[in-house]
Amino acid sequence: KVRKYTFNQVVMKNTTSLCSSKPIVTVNGLFPGPTLYAREGDNVQVKVVNNVKYNVSVHWHGIRQLRTGWADGPAYITQCPIQTGQSYVYNFTITGQRGTLLWHAHILWLRATVHGAIVVLPKRGVPYPFPKPHKEVVVILGEWWKSDTEAVINEALKSGLAPNVSDAHTINGHPGKVSNCPSRGGFTLPVENGKTYMLRIINAALNEELFFKIAGHKLTVVEVDATYVKPFKIDTIVIAPGQTTNVLVTADKSSGKYLVVASPFMDSPIAVDNLTATATLHYSGTLANTQTTLTIPPPKNATAVANNFIESLRSLNSKKYPARVPKTVDHNLFFTIGLGINPCPSCKAGNGSRVVADINNVTFVMPTTALLQAHFFNISGVFTTDFPANPPFRFNYTSTPPSNLQTTRGTKVYRLRYNSTIQLVLQDTGIIAPENHPIHLHGFNFFAVGKGLGNFNPKKDPTKFNLVDPVERNTIGVPSGGWVAIRFRADNPGVWFMHCHLEVHTTWGLKMAFLVDNGKGLNESLLPPPSDLPKC
Ligand code: C2O
Predict the structure, then answer these.
(1) Which residue pairs from 4-7 have beta carbons closer than 8 angstroms and sit at least 24 positions apart in sequence?
(2) What is the atom index within ligand 1 of the atom nearest the CA of 74?
(3) In the prediction, which pLDDT does 349 show?
(4) CB 98 less than 6 A from any atom of ligand 1
(5) CB of 64 sitting under 6 A from ligand 1
(6) What is the pLDDT of residue 183?
């Protein structure tokens, strides 16, 4: 079935939140933007018409885009941006996936307000591998700045320092009851006694991992990043920007109002933000003046609460939904990720230096021609293929690393043979401070086979990897001062971005791309670009 969304007008809209108004970039005037519904197997065509002063591009986060990298969306990676007054039709088929994902702008910091849900239902007649919920509700977590977000990051880049944090977190666009703006109650979720609801929770925030919980109610986790997991019950989930989590909630009280909270998780010593967004679970028949049952969100450094959730995740790995974990490895990669300091004579506030970020000591430089075009049309001089498989030098990454380690800069990609298998260890470094990094890989799902604190030990740690039912995702939190190991198969030809989904870290250069060669078979090569592909 072909689903055409020809309504995606990108326009400015004056929007009020937290007792203040500002013009924001929106899709169709909505914040959050419209939900895109489809079924597994559908061909989706979304025409994006740009009517704002910024260049735009839209990414379908987590959609595999098998052979259709031209529709992936990251600006200057798979396409040149859509210029003001222009349009582009994103045309892709949803193959072998169903669940909750998100779409968002993939240029500048426009993602702050240009985002929405993607709901991919199973093929007609195919049930969920859990009891059918009474209703399904999209819950989008986000952030709100009183000032213009482009001004926030431009200011930071000029000074060399970190940008301001947001003024509030939001649940479906609303901060809820916050002390400095008491007028709004926030998002309300109406429920009926005895019924079960599926919440499709999405973290669309720019820079914040979030806890999510509901007073008096357990969450049964059934899916993350549009892959089914073995169901388990828990009080609090943690969700990083770019991640999605489906939970079942049974309304097992007879009546009442129950507080829903979304609060930051940042087990980093330099994090400064601690605002909780609230919403309300409201039982039908409950009187309006009933007191809301409250709950206290975990403290922002509650690593144990986060780990309790993360370590409970397992692929469903059933007959129908097997976990196809690569058992052998062709490319064995070790990438350090972290922040560093580079000289910047013009950075006054930063005392002549600026914060940067890197992978294997390379701070990625955005090209001015899209990498995928350069690859497909053999345009030389746009990128090099010498991205290192290992960091240039080894040191103790998590205890006392060398201070002021300077990065190199370049537009480097790592080349993968089509259909080869990859093991990639992502090691956090503590050069400025250990930080959480939710790393997102475009074009693939991967299996999270191992995780640990401190330095990865290449002899001992792999013996403990889970190659049976590890969770399958597209975005994974690398623990602060630790590492994760992922495995995937390079079965998608093209150029695929990988980056930290904290937008500030991406801006600072925590990004790179994989180039996957064409396969030899008829159905293994990248398709040619559509004729309306934007030009740089
Ligand atoms: Cu959700 Cu490259 O991003």
Answers:
(1) 4/45, 4/46, 4/47, 5/36, 5/44, 5/45, 5/46, 5/47, 6/45, 6/46, 6/47, 7/34, 7/47
(2) 2
(3) 79
(4) no
(5) no
(6) 56
Instruction: For residue range 11-44, list pLDDT tens digits in order.
Output: 899 988 888 899 999 999 999 999 999 999 999 9
CA–centroid distance, residue 195 to ligand 1 (Å): 35
Q: Looking at residue 306, what is its pLDDT?
A: 96
* Mean pLDDT across the chain: 94
> What does the pLDDT average to over 463-489?
97
Find out whether the beta carbon of 61 lies less than 6 Å from any atom of ligand 1.
yes
pLDDT tens by residue, 394-417: 889 998 888 767 899 999 999 999
- What beta strand segments (E) does 176-286 contain? 188-191, 196-203, 209-214, 219-224, 227-234, 236-239, 244-250, 257-265, 277-283
* Ligand 1 contacts CB of residue 300 (under 6 A): no
Would you say the CB of residue 511 lies under 6 angstroms from ligand 1? no
Measured from the CB, is residue 514 less than 6 Å from ligand 1? Answer: no
Give 180 Cα–ligand 1 centroid separation in angstroms: 32
Domains of the chain: 2-121 (2.60.40.420), 135-310 (2.60.40.420), 331-516 (2.60.40.420)
Ligand 1 neighbourhood includes 111 CB (under 6 angstroms): no
Strand partners of residue 364: 410
Residue nearest to atom 3 of ligand 1 (CA): 61
| pLDDT of 180 above 90 | no
